[in-house]
Amino acid sequence: MEAEISAYEKVQQELEQKHMGKWVLFHDQRLVAVYDSFDAAANDAVRQFGRGPYLIRQVGAPPLTLPASVVFGLSYG
Q1: Is position 25 within any domain?
Q2: Using CB atoms within 10 A as the burial measure, which of 33, 49, 58, 67 is most buried?
């Protein structure tokens, strides 16, 4: 997960200029896509990558850390 966070931080300034408030998905240290909602990002992440690891973050928001039990307890259909 640290690699995904680092990849986000490298392009954070550009993302904040172009996509403030949107949701981004990072996987394998690359930006996969930009989404209008967390649900859209999460559904696409699960569809493409299963349980991950991947990073979903709202551009401009402070980082949020969830315990693994919460993260893996979520169910997206």
Answers
A1: yes
A2: 58
